[in-house]
Amino acid sequence: MRVDYEYALRVLPVLLRGAVTTFQATIGGMALALVLGLVFVVLLRSKNVLISYPTRAVLEFVRGTPLLIQLFFLFYVLPEWGIRLEALGTGIFALGLHYSTYIAEVYRAGIESVPRGQWEASTALSFSKLDTWRRIVLPQAVITVLPMLGNYLVAMFKETPLLATITVIEMLGAGLSAAASSYRYFEVFTLIGLIFLAMSLPAGALVRKFEAINKRYA
Amino acid sequence: MTQWIPRLLDGLAMTAQATIASFALAVLVSFVVGLGSRMRTLRPFFRIYVEVFRGTSALVQIFYFFYVLPLVGVQLSPLVAGVSALGLNFGAYGSEIVRGAMEAVPRGQYEASVALSMPRWLAIRRVILPQAVRTMIPPFGNILVDLMKTTALLSMISVGDLAFVGKQVLQSEGSAVMAYLPVMVLYFAFAVLLGRGTHRIEQLVGRGWSEATT
Q1: Cβ of A144 under 8 Å from any chain B Cβ?
Q2: Which of B151, B149, B18, B93 is nearest to A60 (CA)?
Q3: pLDDT in tens, B14-63
Q4: In this complex, do B57 and A160 lie within 8 Å of one another by their Cβ atoms?
Q5: 8 Å CB contact of B188 and A179
Q6: Is the per-residue pLDDT at A50 higher than 80?
Q7: Is residue A86 within 8 Å of A66, Cβ to Cβ?
Q8: Is A77's Cβ below 8 Å from some Cβ in B?
Q9: How far apart are CA B68 and CA B75, in angstroms?
Q10: Helix or strand holding residue B125 (H, E)
Q11: What is the Cα B48 distance to its own chain's centre?
């Protein structure tokens, strides 16, 4: 097999244009996951078991089924229910929903990592509930949570190629349609792999740096 | 709908087969790479392998194995290509688990083996690994469940697994709820089963073992 470097150079801009969509999906999905995760963790911590138990069941179900199936389900079901979203919107929704179930657990772990004494001290100093959260609990929880969120961000980034299966022209989708006519799968897929590496290696290093900082303050 | 039940069960069987095969490969690779990384000459190669497979997307790797390998003369069936890609992908994560668990065994255990003049590999086999394996079981359990869910990607290279059958139901019945609800329930049941199973194994190997004995 001969590697066609000229073709590789020609297809690179196509892939990079796809990468823009990949970014949009990652950022959109993560933003949604961060918000939905917050909703879930509030419901999960509810003292009313009629709220917390069903929430737990939903989280377990979403986590126990493949993202690909959820993606297909939403892609075909939402129009049946009269909700029209473009493919990228559906993809972002699926990514956000799927990852929010993991991120809810991250939030929970973060909140629980703040020692009881901190809550008690806030009560003793008669902090209001809002101030306790804002000034005592959250600043400490955020520090433990950040590297975990970073890990999920990188994981989600690597799962965005799944959106190609519901016609989103992200990096993989762009590559597949280019390779279908040129049949130069080697060049296309190798470039996609390299672009992924170029993104996820520095991101991973950054997350590890955060973790190291955390250890120092732990 | 009932006429689809045998097809769904076939799909489930294929998902189970792909899960077992790729998990076996992943565990094998994890130990080879995790233990091999202790040898200085091999370490850089294993490092590159781990970074490449962890740094790129599983779906891209599956397509790579399916579309690119035939171009260099390696013809694999879709199932074998997919299982290889998944096994190597999860093996990269697993090797870090093995490495971490080996490092978590207290230094004194290594030193005691040296003091008893055990050869290095004997010490690893008889002293270090049996202790490390206990800490590996919960993370490998997570990998197993994750891997099972990721086998759904194999439907994209025409492996007839549960996800593939779901697509067929959709195409002939035209209803996404009818097609994917049973599929999701089956995946979920399988995930719960695997979770329970690994929990049971954890309990079994954890018997007679407490923090005090380490």
Answers
A1: no
A2: B149
A3: 999 999 999 999 999 999 999 998 888 999 999 999 999 999 999 999 99
A4: yes
A5: no
A6: yes
A7: no
A8: yes
A9: 10
A10: none
A11: 19
Extract the tokens encoding B150.
């990721």
Instruction: Report whether pLDDT(B141) > 80.
Output: yes
Q: If phi over 0 gives left and psi between -120 and 50 gives alpha, with beta otherwise, what is residue A128?
A: beta
B120: closest CA of chain A, how far (Å)? 31
Q: How confident is the model at residue B2 (pLDDT cuts 50, 70, 90)?
A: confident
Q: Which residues of chain B approach chain A closer than 8 Å at the C-beta?
A: 51-52, 54-61, 63-64, 67-68, 71-72, 145, 149-153, 155-156, 163, 166-167, 170, 175-177, 179-181, 183-184, 187-188, 191-192
Q: Which two tokens mark A11? A: 């297809």
Tell me whether A80 touches chain B (CB under 8 Å): yes
Q: How distant, in Å, are the alpha carbons of B103, B113, B214 from that of B108?
A: 12, 8, 10
Q: How far is B16 from chain A (nearest CA, A)?
A: 14
pLDDT at A21: 97
Structure pTM?
A: 0.91
Nearest to B163 by CA among A68, A91, A173, A61: A68
Res B54: pLDDT: 94
Rounded Cα gap, residues B197 and B191, in angstroms: 10
- What per-residue string of b and e applies to A63-76 under the rule 16 or more CB within 10 Å gives b? bbbbbbbbbbbbbb
Q: Do A192 and B183 touch (CB under 8 A)?
A: no
Cα gap B157→A114, rounded to integer Å? 46
Q: Which two tokens stand for residue A32?
A: 């949604």
Mean pLDDT to the nearest integer, B187-200: 96
